[in-house]
Amino acid sequence: MKVFLLAGGLGTRLRPLTDHIPKCLVPVRGRPLIDYWFDLFDDLGVNEVLVNMHHLSDLVEAHFIVHPWKDRVRLFHEPELMGSAGTVRANRNFVGNDDFLVCYADNLTDTNLSVIWDRHQKGDSILTMGLFHTPFPKECGIATLDKDGHIIDFVEKPQNPASNLANAGIYAVSPEIFDVIGDQPSPVDFGFDIIPKLSGRMAGVAIDGFLMDVGTVERYESVQKLWPH
Questions:
Q1: How confident is the model at residue 154 (pLDDT cuts 50, 70, 90)?
Q2: Between these two residues, 18 and 25, which has the higher pLDDT value?
Q3: Torsion sign over Cα 140, 3, 217, 28
């Protein structure tokens, strides 16, 4: 199994912390944010991880030179950000014709990734999205599910949310996604550009455990207190 771990964000909402530290390496309880993901990948039996880089990429490279996963991590530098789907498209050969995971490295979670992966293996969707109940639905991508767990509507940051089931930034994906992404110019974003095209061809599954976007100064300060580990 292979994973795209998307870590190329600028971290503008975390400044001044991210003036000198890439967002994926900001410390949570003394440990770089990105490293918590590798605990989850170990549990799932992941073989290889592709990490994209942009802001302060030299520090990300240095981090993985001595990382326990250094032989199973492929680094991909983006001189200009391609967007989440653009990164996946540019590295199609990384996954070939197999299903794969896409995870957003600026989230901190302890969820069991196999719940999302196992749901995807039912084979009735191109993309299976991890979902969580958010108290701030206007700030998230919000999904509406039918009785079989298929996503029948998805709106990014809606003014009038239909539910509080929010995109957790964890997807199990089939290779048919490359046909959906197509050749539209980068940047191409999953949330804004691709997922709205997949209505009826996506599944959603609510995740257990902790999940928080560590993308703002306020949430970064909160996660230091709330992270249960």
A1: confident
A2: 25
A3: positive
Asked whether the bond before 22 is cis by omega within 30 degrees of 0, the reply is no
- Enumerate residues 6+ apart whose C-beta is below 8 A from 181: 85, 86, 88, 89, 188, 194
List 212's β-bridge partners, or say none: 108
Residue 1's pLDDT is what? 92
Supply 209's token pair. 């455990």
Residues 6 or more apart whose Cβ sits within 8 Å of residue 57: 22, 75, 77
The conformation of residue 20, written as its DSSP 8-state character, comes to: T
Q: Is the model's pTM score more than 0.85?
A: yes
Distance (Å, whole) CA 75 – CA 173? 20
Q: What are the tokens at 82?
A: 């391609």
User: Is there a contact between 195 and 202 (Cβ–Cβ < 8 Å)?
Assistant: yes
Residue 14 pLDDT > 80: no
Please list, in sequence order, all residues whose beta carbon lies within 8 angstroms of the beta carbon of residue 64, skipping any fewer than 6 positions away: 51, 70, 73, 75
| CA distances, 1 to each of 50, 102, 201 (Å) | 12, 11, 22
| pLDDT, tens digit, 9 for 90 and up, residues 180-227 | 999 999 899 998 899 988 988 999 999 989 998 888 888 888 889 888
Side chain identity at 109, as an amino acid letter?
A: T
Quote the DSSP letter at residue 5.
E
CB-CB contact of 153 with 94 (8 Å): no
